[in-house]
Protein 1
Amino acid sequence: MTLLVISAYIILYLIAAIILLLLLITTIPFIYRSEGHYIDGTGSAYIVVKWFFGIISIRYQIDSTMNKSFEMKLFCRIPLKFKMKPSKETKRSQRRISPRGIKNILQSTARTLKKFMPSRFCLDAKIGFEDSYHTGLMCAVAPLFEETMLNYNSCSVHLVPVFEEEKFEGSYEIYGKIMLIILLIEAVKILTSGSFKKVKK
């Protein structure tokens, strides 16, 4: 009986420790910085994330040729490096974003930025979708996003729609902090809102 009681206490302590760890990960803010550009078919982007006073830091970088690098440091002293090779075959997604999905994602992004506004946010981009209807939808929704961002002195947004062709060019810079739990909540909202529809073969 005593052994069973001890085992029960150990299991309870383990469960409590796991719950506490999850609460720490999801509620302690992550400090992030990201910059990137893509113009005339070339560019690169990186993101650096630090958590818990820099005890854990992660850096991910990718360029236009799909060369990727990933670096993680523990306690600011132990580097762990990973290099990922580009995949030989690219499988096309069997799902595509719906017009309502574009609106949901933009609104979700605006809500997230409003809750955890980065201390700096700059975006200068030319965007055109394969379907001009989606580009027009972006034009209708983007002002709401721009208005939210322009309420802050450290932010600037400049979006230029392109109707003649599919185009994604521009540059961005972001610096701020956010809690993982907010991203998880917004991700669940998008996934359960019917933003993606299955493509028929």
Protein 2
Amino acid sequence: MKIYVVTAHNVYQGNQHSYVVGVYDNFEDAKKSIDIEEMNRGGKYECRIKDFTLNTIPEELTSD
């Protein structure tokens, strides 16, 4: 199952100030949350979506 994590990042401070807006199992809901959050924050924050697969262990890094 894919999940979508929406984060907001301060446009003036970059990643120095960011927070999670929400976690969604539907991409369209994640996009809607971006529109609402960016409007509510008056353009001071830019939101991003990152997708993950639930209950999947990331591949290990190996040195070849």
Protein 3
Amino acid sequence: MRLAVLAVLSLGSAIASAEPCRQAEVADPSPGRSDALLPAEARIARDLSLSNNTLVWSSGESLWRLRLDGKVCAERIAGRPADAASAVDALRVAVAGDSVVALTRTALMPLAPTVAAAGTPVEQLPETPQTFVLADGALYTSVWRGDAIYRVDLATGTVVELAQLPKGSGRFGFLLAVHADTLYASSWGQRALFAIPFATGIPKTIARGLAAGPTALAIDDANAYLYLESGPKFPGSVVSIELAKPSAKPRTLATGIANSDSLLRDGDWLYLRSDTRAKKGAIDLVRVPLGGGAIERVAADLPSPARPIGADAEAIYLDGGSRIVRLQKP
């Protein structure tokens, strides 16, 4: 499968002349919570990210933003008109610093006429790109059912294999995270965590034999934090792994968190979504101290999927599909 192009945009300048915004309806369901109800055409498909006081996400074949400036309006900043005939795959988006990288599986996403940006042809990848992160002018990606991690140079489109992980590591996909000069990859299939220095591309096993498959990952200077899936035999737990002592047993920080697929580290806390049995389809936002301790419920009765995706000094932001949820920090 060929990943044909990447489109690189700058949040600071290249999208300054985006299309007129669609005003989002604002609701305040409870104290400390505000919901921006998005227009139907701007519903979040995936990849909602927070960067430089701006939320960016993909919806079908379009890229959208909502600036946190009090206006609460959604702006379509790239993509085909909604009524245009198209065989282009759904748009994906990755954010780092003030840059947005938009990509599709097979073709360049034409940008809105008012947006000045160009695509860069990308050399062939063996399969469909799955998870990806940005760092130092490159996009790092895994591909469907593959055990390799690839580096795509954003300036030239050159693709190289950064690392090859043990057989079967990518069968059910990787989670990727960057910290300093190292790429981290957690494997659901192998129940393992690997560290891959950018300089060498030689993987180092940080942890193996985890109690369950990891579905969320975050990294800081000292530790890796993983959410291990919940199920009939697994309690749904958050663990920390000391990076300086890769042979040490993972430390369990909390258990009993159900069906989480996102993990946001902010300050001294880890924020996660958790399904609640009290009301079918309802979601809680919970937080766990970095050092371990009692789980705190931050908010209840949130809309599915309610994934925590970013934080600023005052609030936590969540992907609610048809809405963006802002929760005042406790």
